[in-house]
Known about the structure:
- Helices cover 33% and strands 14% of the residues.
- By secondary structure, it is α+β, with helices and mostly antiparallel strands.
- It has two domains: 21-84, no CATH class; 105-173, Orthogonal Bundle (Arc Repressor Mutant, subunit A), CATH 1.10.10.10.
- It has a three-stranded antiparallel beta sheet, with helices on one face. Strands 4-5 form a two-stranded antiparallel ribbon.
- A hairpin with an 8-residue loop joins β4 (158-161) and β5 (170-173).
- The longest helix is centred in the middle third of the chain and has 19 residues, at 105-123.
- It is rod-shaped and about 90 Å long.
- The chain starts with 20 loop residues before the first helix and ends in an 11-residue tail after the last strand.
Amino acid sequence: MMATLPAVHAMDEAPGVVASAERVDAWLATAKPGDRFVYASRCSLPVASKGAARMRALQDSGLVFLHCPRDRENPTIFNYLAIRTARPRPAPQPERATLTARLVEADTALTDALLPVLQRAAHYGRPCPTDRVLAQRAAMTIDQVGEGLAALRQAGLIQITAPGSQSKRRVTIVATGQRTGAMA
């Protein structure tokens, strides 16, 4: 048997106005279980109402119960009522930073050839190859290796730790966190 709800006398929104999605979220942020919010008083809700759509989504997630009793003074008007349930709000998901590659078109060929060589060395924890070895494995000149490393670093694809000499350089692949091993 369903319990009857008491009649709604006070209105939170002006007659004919539907609360915006932002106003609905502001109410939800402070509402306690059992709190009521009349988000519209009108004959019907507009199909494109974002506030009404937000309330339906909240009902689907179990955060509110929706009810629309007729107004006591004007039976052609409905008071669209939301009642906060005891279900806790889900914790907001943290926003994760995304990696963005800012490569110049000329650098793309260099980085496409150089990155797999560095990834392979980092995957197996091997020492970072010298510029000469990188040039041989990536089929480029030694000057191009420097340009390619600079482009990869600027694009945020790798981090380089160079304690003094290139033979002790360590490269970290940002996407995986893997790094080349240090030379003895």
